[in-house]
Amino acid sequence: MYKIFDTVDEVSRYTAQRLLAKIKAAPTAVLGLATGSTMEPVYAQMLKDIQQAPVDLSKLTTFNLDEYIGLSAQHPQSYNYYMYQHLFNQLNIPARNVHLPDGLASDVETACQAYSNAIEAMGGLDLQLLGIGSNGHIGFNEPQTCFNSRTHIVELSEQTRIDNGRFFDDQNEVPTHAITMGIQDILNAKEIILVATGSNKTEIMAQLFASAIDEALPASALKQHKNLTIVLDREAAALLPEQALKSAV
Ligand code: GLP
């Protein structure tokens, strides 16, 4: 299902409301969370909404999608740092319920397995929030990642390193590897919301719409999911065919 809004503000309000509705309906919910500039206004809106109407977060559990290898939680470009800055520092989710892949794990393979196992042990993700990379990656699952992958190490593509270079002082500082939940972990979520905004997502959203389910375009795996919402602003939706716009509600 597509949801298309005129502005990023409306996209963020809708997405924040969906997340909060899930938590209110199920205070023990397990959420899969994402990072990236797309999520900043979403999390800001969530904080605003919670300030106005407090929600019980004491039983909530979260798992983040991904993390750079080699960056500590204190590194301003680590996803751990991002999550605390934009969300967790302002919320009272118990620390033991918050999970992020460890970019400094000494045994990364074991840490990856443990991460997918921990998600499963919680009964899986109730709702996974996703952004999308300009090459169609979800989490850090780059093109050609197996759709049955679990949490694993990835070598970042040149495109992704260039895209994400904007957050670093120097392109050479962008890590070459990351840990990401696998596509299977994502597909196992009961509900998925993919959010894309702005003109740098126009092309990929048109490609995704037209694409078959194909490992060359990781986000196309989502087309087999039974409860997927794609939330776009007008810019990201600009090249979608009439057919998609008509079915959008
Ligand atoms: C990164 C993250 C993805 C995110 C993507 C898009 O590569 N690993 O999870 O979806 O960037 O980010 P942005 O929202 O900044 O465009």
Describe the structure.
With 249 residues, the protein is an alpha/beta fold. Strands 1-10-9-6-2-3-5 form a seven-stranded parallel beta sheet. It has a three-stranded antiparallel beta sheet with strand order 4-8-7, with helices on one face. It is globular, with a radius of gyration of 17 Å. The protein binds 2-amino-2-deoxy-6-O-phosphono-alpha-D-glucopyranose (GLP). The site of 2-amino-2-deoxy-6-O-phosphono-alpha-D-glucopyranose has 14 residues, from helix 5.
List the helices and strands and how they pair.
Elements: E1 2-5, H1 8-25, E2 30-33, H2 39-52, E3 61-64, E4 66-68, H3 79-86, E5 98-99, H4 108-121, E6 127-130, E7 152-155, H5 158-164, E8 177-180, H6 183-187, E9 192-196, H7 202-210, E10 228-233, H8 242-247
Parallel strand pairs: 1-10, 2-3, 2-6, 3-5, 6-9, 9-10
Antiparallel strand pairs: 4-8, 7-8
Summarize the structure.
This protein is α/β, with parallel strands linked by helices and 249 residues long.
